[in-house]
Design brief:
Distance between the termini: 83 Å
Number of strands: 5
Helix content: 40-55%
Shape: rod-shaped
Mean pLDDT: 82
Largest sheet: 5 strands, mixed
Order of helices and strands: EEEEHEHHHH
Low-confidence stretches: none
Structural class: alpha+beta
Number of helices: 5
Strand order of the largest sheet: 4-3-2-1-5
């Protein structure tokens, strides 16, 4: 298949392009059939010399033979008065270009799921700690409010529940201790 496309020339950081007719499988700057124009992007748009020069008759002949212009060359050709009727160029539109691919979307979904699970687990741990602290507080109040006469009769069951209550209280204190230490570290010390 024949293409009318750009072939780069010029020096490093000073591009100059030739508009050539070449086989679609040949390299960009490689073998071509005919040079049919040039494009110098370094010239100003409204300068005295044109940025794009075209051999209109030769391009029309190659288009008649079935050569297809690339997107950039089609833009140049559609701006020419004589070739504008033969070459219709419309700007491409790809609204999905900026959206991430399938794998990136899967990774984002997995990350969101992990964050939701972590937040749920933290919330459940806080609720458990609060309930344990309330139970320990209620048991301590009940033990203090109980009359001295009933205490010896209920001493055996209370002795079994006391270590569990103490463990819950120490767990709640252990969870609150790092927060207190972090707050203490943030405050500047006066010397």
């Amino acid at each position: 298949m024949l293409k009318i496309r750009l072939a780069r020339g010029g020096a490093k950081k000073r591009p100059y392009y030739y508009i050539v007719v070449a086989d679609s499988h040949s390299p960009r700057d490689g073998k071509f059939l005919e040079r049919v124009g040039s494009y110098n992007p370094m010239l100003p748009k409204d300068g005295p010399t044109p940025r794009v020069t075209l051999k209109v008759e030769r391009i029309a002949e190659w288009l008649g033979k079935g050569a297809q212009p690339t997107d950039r060359v089609a833009r140049f050709l559609s701006q020419d008065e004589t070739l504008g009727a033969k070459v219709k160029w419309t700007q491409g539109n790809n609204p999905n270009k900026a959206q991430p691919g399938k794998k990136a979307q899967e990774r984002a979904a997995e990350r969101a799921q992990r964050e939701a699970d972590r937040a749920e687990a933290e919330a459940a741990a806080k609720v458990e700690a609060a309930e344990a602290a309330e139970r320990a507080k209620a048991e301590a109040e009940a033990a203090a409010a109980a009359p001295a006469e009933e205490a010896p009769a209920e001493e055996a069951p209370a002795a079994e529940e006391a270590p569990a209550a103490e463990e819950a209280a120490t767990e709640a204190a252990a969870e609150e201790a790092p927060a207190a230490e972090a707050a203490a570290e943030e405050e500047p010390t006066e010397a």
